Amino acid sequence: MRAVVVLFDSLSRRYLPSYGNSHVIAPNFERLEKMSQTFERYYTGSMPCMPARRDFQTGRYNFMHRCWGPMEPFDFSFIEELNHHEIYTHLVTDHSHYIQDGGATYHNRYRTFEIFRGQEGDRWMPQGLADNYEESQRLINKRGLSVIQQMANRTKIREETDFPTVRTINAGIEFLKNYADKDEWFLQIECLDPHEPFYSPEKYRRLYGLEEDGDPAEWPAYGKMQGGQKEDIESMRREYEALITMCDFHLGKIMDVMDEHDMWKDTLLIVTTDHGLMLGERGYLGKNFQPPYEELSHIPLYIHDPRGAMGVRRTALVQMIDMAPTLLAWFGIPLPLDLDGRDLFPVIRDDTSVHETILFGINGGHACIYDGEYIYMRAAVEEDNKSLINYTLMPTMMRGFVDKELLKRAELIKGNRFTNGIPCLKIAMKTYVDSFGFGSLLFDMKCDMNQINPLHDSETEKKMADKLIQAMKRIEAPQEEYVRLGLKQD
């Protein structure tokens, strides 16, 4: 048995032909659609990047217990489980968060891995373009990202083959060619693109009327759109589309190798993303701080199962947490413990439902539940977001350690389901996410699938709040989450 997962970061379903876009040039995603099952209701779980990857590896929701952070010593990893059963696991990626404090324990779970440098302000090349330290630290859109650093990295990108995503995919193709006649392996090809910065070769940019080299100052500055940004937003969207077209071209090369080596007959292929992105929709740019609307939480998924039908669509509710049990099932490995995710092969076989409800959200933000009819986004009931806590034995954030003042107040608690029975630290945390300011939101997804008109229906809201409580009980959410969200645990 062999399996390949191709993961693109921030790939919005609204920009793909398979999901109704008629403008973006993506013939290989259309080709993939014919060779796969396309999932209509696939949702992220924990947002953004590394929380989603923790969902992927552990098969459990991360966002109610922990913010952005590494794999923990107490975590179950399906990658390690594959290794234990002598399935060879290999990762190729250009995602720089894997080598930062908040993600440095993910890639080490794989038997081997190869990481390509230079994406999104990765602290890689010496900043020879900067005349002084202050200039070198000039930030572009998010804390920790430097314009000068990104431009220094670009000095190493002279040809299309130099782009980190292209190098990543080529490394994956090399693995496929080398092991096309071997069995019992798992390959993960993971690309940061089309995540910002939206930088691609001129030949793709010309397809969208972008003739001059992109200006890094056009990276989306996360937040509410300001007046007069309409032209900038249109330019950003075209840069994003060009980058999707580049990803599509190189996805086609992966598929070409599968054609050449007749791998479709015995290799599972999964192509997906971690979350979406807003580029002006609802007046927002970026992700993370706003409610996890459809543009962010509802994401694309293609699965080619050699045993299943191809060119069909599936409508059952499925999520990122389902990847771990599905891949274990593919290799015939039983689940060693209770997971939140479910094996998707019943869905692949005949669209059998595997979830009555699903959860999604970001730590300290809205906690969302979807039952196939309504999506309910529950906000914090206090402006100061009390009582937000994190469970961890690895007190790091995205690019650094948890603040020492917060650590001083940390307490060691006994193990629970989330920690697989191992004691951990409970740390009171702060967040930049303001769900209180947005308030709770309720949407009828059968009548209002684009979430234009929030419902004001106390009876339905209570019903969905009760379902949220039951789902939180199943995953043994922290008591502090009930307090933060103003929910009463029966």
Characterize the structure shown.
It is a single chain. By secondary structure, the chain is α/β, with parallel strands linked by helices. The model has no long low-confidence stretch (mean pLDDT 93). It has 15 helices and 22 strands. 29% of the residues lie in helices and 18% in strands. It has an 8-stranded mixed β-sheet, sandwiched between helices. It has a 5-stranded mixed β-sheet with strand order 4-16-17-18-22. A 3-stranded mixed β-sheet has the order 12-3-15. The protein has helices at 27-35, 49-58, 78-84, 133-136, 147-154, 164-178, 202-206, 230-260, 294-297, 323-330, 345-350, 404-408, 435-438, 458-474, 479-485, and strands at residues 2-8, 37-39, 42-43, 46-47, 88-93, 112-115, 185-191, 223-224, 267-273, 278-279, 284-286, 298-299, 301-304, 312-314, 318-319, 358-362, 367-370, 374-378, 389-392, 411-413, 424-428, 441-444. It starts with a strand and ends in a 5-residue tail after the last helix. Helix 1 (27-35) crosses helix 8, helix 3 runs parallel beside helix 10 (323-330) and helix 6 (164-178) runs parallel beside helix 8. It is globular. Strand 16 and strand 17 form a beta hairpin.
How is the secondary structure organized here?
Elements: E1 2-8, H1 27-35, E2 37-39, E3 42-43, E4 46-47, H2 49-58, H3 78-84, E5 88-93, E6 112-115, H4 133-136, H5 147-154, H6 164-178, E7 185-191, H7 202-206, E8 223-224, H8 230-260, E9 267-273, E10 278-279, E11 284-286, H9 294-297, E12 298-299, E13 301-304, E14 312-314, E15 318-319, H10 323-330, H11 345-350, E16 358-362, E17 367-370, E18 374-378, E19 389-392, H12 404-408, E20 411-413, E21 424-428, H13 435-438, E22 441-444, H14 458-474, H15 479-485
Parallel strand pairs: 1-7, 1-9, 2-14, 3-15, 4-16, 5-6, 5-7
Antiparallel strand pairs: 2-13, 3-12, 8-11, 9-13, 10-11, 16-17, 17-18, 18-22, 19-21, 20-21
